[in-house]
Amino acid sequence: MRKETILNACVLLGLLAVPLWALSVDEPFIITLATKAVIFAIAGVGLNFALGLGGLVSLGHAAFFGIGGYTMGILASHAQNYAPLMEWPLVIEGTKSMPVIWLFAVLFSSLAALVIGALSLRTSGVYFIMITLAFGQMLFFFMISWPAYGGEDGLVIYVRNGFPGLNTLDPIQFFGICFAILCIVLFLVSRMARSSFGLALSGARQNEERMQAVGMVPYRLYLIAFTISGAITGLSGALFADLNRFVSPTMFSWQTSGEIMIFIILGGTGRLFGPVVGAAVFILLEHMLGGLSEFWHVYLGAILLGVVLFARGGLIHLVAGREVAHD
Amino acid sequence: MSLVLLIEQVLNGLQFGVMLFLMAAGLTLIFGVMGLINLAHGSFYMIGAFAAAATAAATGSFLLALAASLVAAAVAGAIVEMTVIRRLYNRDHLDQVLATFALILIFSEGTRWLFGSFPLFLDIPDYLAGPISLPFGIQYPQYRLAIIAVGLVVAGGLFALIAKTRIGIQIRAGESDREMIAALGVDISNLYTFVFALGAALAGIAGALIGAIQSVQVGMGEPVLILAFVVIVIGGIGSIKGALLGALLVGLTDTLAGFLLPNAFGLVMDPAAASAVGSSLASMSIYVLMAGVLLFRPTGLFGSS
Amino acid sequence: MKLKFLALVTALTSVASLAQADVKVGMITTLSGGGAGLGIDVRDGFMLAIKQSGRDDIEVVIEDDQRKPDIAVQLADRMIQSEKVDVLTGIIWSNLAMAVVPSALAQGKFYLSPNAGPSQLAGKGCHKNYFNVAWQNDNLHEAGGAHANSTGYNNTFVLAPNYPAGKDALTGFKRVYEGGLSGELYTKLGQKDYASEIAQIRASGADSVYFFLPGGMGISFLKQYADSGLELPLVGPAFSFDQGILQAVGDAALGVANTSQWSKDTANPTNEAFVASFQAEYGRLPSLYASQGFDTANLLISAAGSADVADGDAFQAALKAADFASTRGDFAFAGNNHPIQDIYVREVIKEGDIYTNKIVSTALEDHSNAYVSDCSM
């Protein structure tokens, strides 16, 4: 086995072991932190599909994260107030069922990604970074001033949504759900990366002309990748909303987009487990540095800077060495 | 809605645009010459404002405060360039985004550590305080007219610097062919430090000028940074001319949309609702403008593809 | 995140600690980033009261929410799940309070609000274990309306940021104000340039301006308004005139009327002692946020002295009695556990080099809030 494969397995086991240990010593907050890391990891895996595989640097993925979150918030708030979303022409009720919410979160965020991607992919390079940022900001300002669903106050969901057969209020069971989703997403993404689509996408990133020469349309490849990427990030947004039982426009802010990107770079761009490592380390840093001083952002900044300057290729690169291929 | 009010709003939009240009000029120069995305550019804006406030408090002189903002931002820019930024020129945009994002964290919390959590005081000098009467009975603050003037002078100076001087030739050469300029014996790393410090100084003086009419506080740079990015993307990254046009477009769009949209909705709704809906749409207007421009010109108005 | 302040151990074995169980308090407030000034004041006021009480049975755990609702929610989870606190307090912003408070109450905790008072928690969402020690969000704006009435303004221009608290503010003002409006504007949240709004005020023919623009927005507005040459009287709530930001506004704020439930010169012995001891302890004048933190802690101390926090009903009744000396003078809770108090009109003055406020009149006496009848508990 390659070093990186072993490392990946260790990361997953570690992510699983920490909350189990926390359960045994009755520290439920650590389970919550681990759940947050897993959810952020899913968001990062989503962005990494566009960024690592397709080379699409999107600074607007908070848009999909937020759409996923608000899908949960809006559906669940209608359900908790017993007010249908729509009464005409057909009655649509809200729902408190996680699987249904996930389905809609994926649906809406992929639709949004399709539209935003279709427009943004007309540009490239820095312009692409900035136009995705612009779309994210548009949605951010819209959500702040749109009064129907709480505006800046956001929406509070009093009880976590349900999953058949499980008690989602129990931190460890909710962690289990999120962890399972992360594993499924990782599996699907690695399959897609090795499929002919994934290989073509990688090819387009490395050499667009060659792909055109063999009859591929890079725009279409990029758009599919961007849509899938948005859908995964949207799903993580719905989970994040359920973790907090709360959604607010901060989910749409450009700092959120920046944080998702940090997970990837911290862990290692283009590596399957890059965002997983990055998210876990980021949460760990945030938790530990916060206790050091009121001015802990200074330390966080210094560490991030150190990683970029001296640990090229991210933390996985430090441990596992040079990237062989995306697997 | 009278014509006078509309003219006043156009002046406001112009003033906002000129200020944005000071921010955007540095950003676009740095990108054009070194190919670097600098998210920390807003921090120089903040450093300029804090240096000005501290100097004004110590000396009572506004001109000294402005000078201090230029010097502080330029020095901070030069130090950051030599210690950090220099290592990022050959990296991809992703690394640059993360590294300069990290710099924002360090600068913001560092400033709070030095100056405390409360906003600082910086005021307009007496000789520029109060309004002035313009034709058509318009009362307009002198200080804002002064900002427009200073901005236009700086813009003119920048164009002259780039078109006429030796260093301007080097900058233009650096934009088009980096290997060539090094081969010509120009010390490229000095040139880069100069350009970076120049950009930082422009942001610093913008921060000081605006700090006098707004609040000098930690985090003041980020909203302006995002707007400055919108400006240079609309104008075409690397183009000073584009930055000027983009800045004026964004300034006018933001101001006029904020003014006209609520009024337009007021024709069909009650005033409270119209103001709420109108200002919601107005806050999205510049991003709509930017997306629109990029759809028709994917490299901005003056960008080269 | 483990800034733990353990209350000082008293040498005396006082009557107060007579077999009472310890009270553990979780304070979630904003200590870093742009809005840190408010949270620091609340924390300092709160800890001053704890220190002065000399009680060793009240433990306070303090955490920084960075003004992010999701962080606040996670901190609340942690305090409830891991730290096992009995009482939560500290939140500054309404949107964070709405994210944290309902679920904390549902888990059987007490919440004492030192600042935010969203209408949802005063009306239908009121709760017997939720006590607001500051004000209901509309209160200071209602006082602004009352002040406008008594001064005889009848063509006021009103403006506030376009977010829920901004809309509540203008609703509160209009609830009491009897004159006409010459204009009503909602500005972008976080906006720093008000040239456009000031031009519209000038053109509107207003006889006065009521504005709600907290923090940096207010600083910017006041400076630009003073420079515009407009002479119309300004009225606003205390949030743009607190001790922390007045120094940044400077002369532009001089003489401006603002409404507040507290002032440095509120005449009562508790307040005089508070102002002096706060200045001695921290080397700066207290703000209204500090006074709210101080009162919140004293309410808690009074309840902990007469009831056991493990006995929910008794502790609730002890809190409701509000048997403590407030820096505001008379203080009682209305039916929905929000304050009944006087609200004053203050004016900004300069004392030596320091800008501060002095009370000029009382806008509303023993003022409660508009949501009492919506609350059934």
UniProtKB/TrEMBL annotation, chain A:
It holds the Pfam family BPD_transp_2. The lineage of its organism: Bacteria, Pseudomonadati, Pseudomonadota, Alphaproteobacteria, Rhodobacterales. Keywords: Cell membrane, Membrane, Transmembrane, Transmembrane helix. This is Branched-chain amino acid ABC transporter permease. It comes from the Bacteria. The chain crosses the membrane at residues 38-57, 62-80, 100-119, 126-149, 169-189, 219-240, 260-285, 297-320. It is a multi-pass membrane protein. InterPro entries: ABC_transp_permease, LivM-like. It is found in: Cell membrane.
TrEMBL record, chain B:
It is a multi-pass membrane protein. This is Branched-chain amino acid ABC transporter permease. The keyword rRNA-binding does not apply. Its main location: membrane. InterPro entries: ABC_transp_permease (IPR001851), BCAA_transport_permease (IPR052157). Keywords: Amino-acid transport, Cell membrane, Membrane, Transmembrane, Transmembrane helix, Transport. It comes from the Bacteria. It is found in: Cell membrane.
From TrEMBL, chain C:
The keyword RNA-binding does not apply. Transmembrane segments: none annotated. Residues 1-21 form the signal peptide. InterPro entries: BCAA_transport, Leu-bd, Peripla_BP_I. Residues 23-352 form the Leucine-binding protein domain. It comes from the Bacteria. Keywords: Amino-acid transport, Signal, Transport. Belongs to the leucine-binding protein family. This is ABC transporter substrate-binding protein. It comes from Parasedimentitalea denitrificans. The lineage of its organism: Bacteria, Pseudomonadati, Pseudomonadota, Alphaproteobacteria, Rhodobacterales.
